[in-house]
Design a protein that fits this description.
This protein has helices at 35-48, 65-83, 133-146, 160-179; strands at residues 4-10, 14-21, 28-31, 51-58, 92-99, 102-109, 115-119, 126-127, 130-131, 149-156. It is α+β, with helices and mostly antiparallel strands. The strands form 3 sheets. It has a 4-stranded mixed sheet, covered by helices on one side. The model has no long low-confidence stretch (mean pLDDT 95).
Length: 196
């Protein structure tokens, strides 16, 4: 069974298409026009072992906000669709990722109930062409649109690039664990019998 989805979104500000395959090899083709963001999405895919294609055109002459936000919306919707009814999945995942002096922890629950807690303090306003606060906004928006509870924090770090990259790597590894099919689970992974 291949769990995958393609989702498109077109507004007056952006055009975004995302194809996501959960049973992948970590291959990523990402073109958003925001170099640092492309790098983070490629790290995410590599560590999740998802195959990911992202093509986005946005009003970068304004700033990167609309592009990053809409990619998060579409990626979240693609993850939600690829998971289907979420039968048999592990549902929860936890990962730590170090990058030199930085250490990030991400915990996810594919519960159907969206929530996000993101704790990171960036020192600079920008990471390349990406406003550093958009890292937080991306994670929050992704959680809402994928219908997952997400707790992401940088436990320590000095370098902003390292902190952001550790977060995306940990996110990928936590989701890799959470989406896995467990042969012992035949139905919905909840004592309630439903998710959400």
């Amino acid at each position: 069974m291949m769990r995958q989805a393609t989702v498109q979104r077109k507004t007056k500000e952006t055009t975004v298409e995302v194809t996501l395959a959960l049973e992948g090899q970590g291959q990523a083709t990402v073109q958003t026009g925001v170099g640092f963001f492309d790098h983070m999405l490629a790290q995410f895919a590599a560590h999740a072992l998802f195959d990911l294609e992202v093509r986005a055109q946005g009003d970068l002459e304004v700033d990167a906000h609309h592009t990053v936000e809409d990619v998060a919306i579409v990626l979240g919707q693609a993850l939600d669709q690829a998971l289907g009814k979420r039968r048999g999945i592990a549902r929860m995942g936890t990962a730590y990722a170090p990058l030199d002096e930085a250490l990030a922890r991400v915990v996810v629950d594919l519960s159907g109930r969206p929530y996000a807690v993101v704790a990171v303090e960036f020192r600079a306003a920008r990471l390349g062409a990406l406003d550093s606060d958009l890292v937080i906004h991306f994670l929050e928006t992704l959680a809402i649109n994928s219908r997952m509870a997400l707790h992401a924090e940088v436990l320590h770090g000095r370098n902003d690039h390292h902190q952001a990259e550790a977060l995306f790597k940990a996110l990928g590894r936590a989701l890799d664990a959470a989406v896995r099919l467990d042969p012992r689970r035949q139905g919905i992974p909840s004592t309630k019998g439903v998710l959400g």
